[in-house]
Amino acid sequence: MDEYTIKSRVVGVEISNARTTYAIVDIRGNILAEETFDTSEYPNVDQFVSVLSEKIITLVEANGGYESIRSIGVSAPSASSSSGYIVNAANLPWKGVIPLAVMLQERIGLAVGLANDAHITALGEQAFGSAHGMRNFIVVSLGVGVGSCFFSEGREHLGNMGYGGEFGHTCVKDFGRQCGCGRQGCLETYVGAKGIVQTACELMEESDKPTLMRDIEKLTPRIISECCDKGDELAIEVYRRTGYRLGIGLANYASIVDPEAIILTGGISHAGKWLIDPTIESFEMHVFGNMAGKVKILASELDDRERDVLGASVLAWSVPEYSLFK
Ligand SMILES: [Zn+2]
Question: Ligand 1 centre and the CA of 123: distance in Å?
Fold first, then answer.
């Protein structure tokens, strides 16, 4: 490579509690190479960062070389883009404060940008998905945790410390269910994965109605939505209650932000109409009257993993290029 080679590629990394995906992405958003491994295999964060760094370097060397890579963007739960730290992640194997951006930068020698997973998801939706061309929108991630990010006049709102958008930890019930964050009654305890399963268990205790769910040893939101597909009334009621609470949360959120659209992403959004229909019904019932009927509530049309790796690549382009001389 000559000294004027233009760095036309970045690396996008998505870290979740289950898996870590890393990919080389070109300037047009094409994924050129991608690999995945289990995050849970590395309970020690130093070991995790070393292995991730080695794997990224190996992938880069096999696909065009180090000189073509400009920077790295990383998505992780409970990450702050302003500090580059992961802080007290409830859903990751590593506890406390982890300066992940610096750790990766020291090992790989490229600029590293870090942002929380909901922010990255929103960047992906803005660049490649349902939010393309929108200036005011909310993206909500529904999975083990419930995160969000909103854009105002085309720019993401991250907040003073970079924690903005913690939608899952807004209180929806005084002295309600115990949350992993230490508080009670958080939205996440009702519409996150564990919360939905808890609602199913409560409903089965309350009711004598026959349901396919009773025969299943380990319920998940996906299995419950499959029961809905088979016409299981109690399973449909699980999502109706979930959508009702989510609709109230979204109505409060929208009443403050006044978005053009709310885009639902993440594994739980794949329940489709079983979740979306009651969510819209409750949203319209609770949102500020002038906004009723005017805010689009959409399910993401992108593949979650691909979108998040691409979103991380969008972040990578925005970080200043690394130089030993700066
Ligand atoms: Zn909480």
Answer: 24
